[in-house]
Design goal:
By secondary structure, this protein is α+β, with helices and mostly antiparallel strands. The protein has 2 domains: 70 residues; 70 residues, Chitinase A, domain 3, CATH 3.10.50.30. 40% of the residues lie in helices and 24% in strands. It has 3 helices and 6 strands; from the N terminus they run H-H-E-E-E-E-H-E-E. A 6-stranded mixed β-sheet has the order 3-4-2-1-6-5. A hairpin with a 2-residue loop joins strand 5 and strand 6. The mean pLDDT is 93. One of its GO terms (biological process) is regulation of DNA-templated transcription elongation. GO terms for molecular function: DNA binding; RNA polymerase binding; translation elongation factor activity. InterPro entries: GreA/GreB_C_sf, Tscrpt_elong_fac_GreA/B_fam. It comes from Pseudomonas koreensis.
């Protein structure tokens, strides 16, 4: 698996998401400001509801723009077995039941998923419990996190 290809897929997905969000925000704004949606009485709330939706869509656009900017400015480095896992690492984890997953540790865009040759890769950030616990760990290390009071343990199988 190639870390640079995964990074590019993440950037491409963020650009697509940004385009969709911008179009949704524009549609919501046009609906909120359309003359047919001017309230005729205090019970006519379509325009107000559309304005709330437009504000939410605009906020989402800014969040995606921020994620895209942070990920574009990410400098990918080769894994250094002296420094351990850091932002920009692509890594494989195995849970206690032997299930494997691939993660990309990014500065933002948590939860975004991309796929490489049928292998799903999930973006996590150091703000998540798992991302925080992975920082500085090494290939072969184990990490443990608590999620909703339940202990979860993972082994780092590979780091790129």
């Amino acid at each position: 698996m190639n870390k640079h290809s995964v990074h590019q897929l993440i950037l491409d997905k963020l650009r697509i998401d940004l385009d969709i969000a911008e179009r949704a925000a524009l549609t919501a704004y046009e609906t909120a400001t359309h003359e047919e949606n001017i309230a005729e009485n205090k019970y006519d709330t379509l325009g107000l509801e559309a304005a709330y939706l437009a504000a939410g869509q605009a906020k989402r656009v800014e969040e995606i723009r921020q994620s895209l900017a942070l990920c574009q400015n990410l400098t990918l480095r080769a894994y250094d077995d002296q420094r351990g896992i850091e932002i920009g690492a692509l890594l494989g984890l195995e849970d206690e039941k032997g299930r494997e997953q691939w993660l990309f540790l990014a500065p933002d865009a948590a939860g975004l998923k991309v796929e490489v040759v049928g292998q799903p890769i999930t973006v996590i950030t150091p703000r998540s419990p798992l991302g925080k616990s992975l920082l500085g760990k090494f290939e072969g290390d184990e990490v443990e996190i608590l999620v909703a009071g339940a202990r979860q343990q993972f082994a780092v199988t590979e780091v790129l």
